[in-house]
């Protein structure tokens, strides 16, 4: 599940979900476009021209996609459904119940909520992915923590709470997007999410298109920052902070490995002495 809006910095969440959906040739099963859920002053329809030059309107909606006759997935043990669209502006409780019923009708066994957030991160470094879950079994399986966030909530959080109450395991997967370019699409963050979802679920899709877009995005941000000395200095500071943080994490991990090795050696020596 991914929604455009507050939880979709750089359009990375919806970008990753749509990319996977397209590559797997998922079939559109349902469109939720009830005007009671959207505020057209905030989520205005878009005018497009068709092949004959006639104007058409694209209205805010939420689309539900799933396996179809042309779907491609390299594992028989996995069926993927997608819920992608505009974050609703109105009647959240009613839409929550409608989506919960939709998920239960399809016998969906677990839910992944994809988000992206603007962060003090440099565009020139790998995109960090964060996971959390309110389901104990999921936390144990992936070695992740429970979210202790306390504050304003998005529609994803509302859905996640409903799924948990209904007994559906959930996991939230978030990508960080450099805040100084969070208003433009970030294929690099979308690619990071795609990679993480592939590893987590055990499937693969072709990456050429999104990888090329990610490369061009990073080069374009480099060019954008080149003429702004203040921005260049700011990015350099972010890079230094990231590198120092990762070096510290590596040192901590190495220390933990050495401690485990020490314990194993002592256990071996203690066993030999007892014998």
Q: Overview of this structure, please?
A:
The protein is α/β, with parallel strands linked by helices. The protein has helices spanning 12-23, 92-105, 136-142, 155-165, 187-201, 208-226, 229-274, and strands spanning 2-4, 27-32, 46-49, 55-58, 62-66, 82-86, 111-119, 129-132, 170-178. The mean pLDDT is 90. A hairpin with a 5-residue loop joins strand 3 (46-49) and strand 4 (55-58). Helix 2 (92-105) crosses helix 4 (155-165). It folds into two domains: 2-214, 3-Layer(aba) Sandwich (Rossmann fold); 227-275.
End-to-end Cα distance, whole Å, is 58 Å
| Coarse morphology | globular
Helix-strand makeup class: alpha/beta
CATH class of the largest domain: Alpha Beta
Spatial sequence of strands, sheet with the most strands: 1-6-5-2
CATH architecture of the largest domain: 3-Layer(aba) Sandwich
Averaged pLDDT: 90
- Helix fraction, binned, reads 40-55%
Largest sheet: 4 strands, mixed
Number of discrete domains: 2
CATH topology of the largest domain: Rossmann fold
Number of E strands: 9
Order of helices and strands: EHEEEEEHEEHHEHHH
- Beta fraction: 15-25%
Keywords:
275 residues; alpha/beta; Rossmann fold; 2 domains; three-stranded mixed beta sheet; 7 helices; 9 strands; 45% helix; globular
Secondary structure layout plus pairing:
Layout: E1 2-4, H1 12-23, E2 27-32, E3 46-49, E4 55-58, E5 62-66, E6 82-86, H2 92-105, E7 111-119, E8 129-132, H3 136-142, H4 155-165, E9 170-178, H5 187-201, H6 208-226, H7 229-274
Parallel strand pairs: 1-6, 7-9
Antiparallel strand pairs: 2-5, 3-4, 5-6, 8-9
């Amino acid at each position: 599940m991914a929604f455009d809006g507050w939880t979709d910095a750089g359009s990375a969440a919806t970008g990753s979900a749509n990319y996977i959906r397209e590559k797997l040739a998922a079939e559109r099963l349902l469109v939720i476009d009830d005007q009671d859920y959207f505020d057209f002053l905030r989520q205005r329809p878009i005018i497009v021209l068709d092949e004959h030059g006639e104007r058409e309107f694209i209205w805010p909606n939420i689309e539900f996609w799933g396996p179809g006759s042309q779907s491609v997935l390299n594992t028989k043990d996995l069926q993927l459904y997608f819920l992608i669209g505009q974050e609703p502006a109105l009647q959240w409780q009613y839409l929550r119940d409608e989506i919960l019923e939709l998920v239960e009708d399809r016998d969906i066994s677990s839910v992944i909520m994809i988000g992206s957030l603007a962060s003090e991160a440099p565009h020139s470094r790998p995109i960090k992915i964060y996971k959390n879950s309110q389901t104990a079994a999921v936390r144990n399986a992936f070695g992740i923590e429970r979210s202790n966030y306390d504050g304003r909530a998005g529609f994803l959080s509302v859905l996640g709470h409903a799924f948990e109450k209904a007994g559906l395991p959930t996991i939230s997967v978030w990508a960080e997007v450099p805040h100084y370019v969070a208003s433009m699409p970030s294929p690099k963050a979308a690619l990071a999410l795609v990679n993480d979802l592939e590893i987590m679920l055990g499937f693969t899709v072709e990456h050429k298109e999104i990888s090329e877009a990610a490369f061009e995005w990073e080069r374009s941000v480099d060019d954008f920052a080149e003429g702004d000395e203040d921005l260049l200095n700011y990015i350099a500071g972010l890079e230094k902070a990231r590198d120092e943080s990762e070096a510290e994490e590596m040192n901590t991990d190495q220390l933990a490995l050495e401690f485990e090795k020490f314990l194993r050696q002592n256990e071996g020596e203690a066993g030999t002495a007892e014998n």
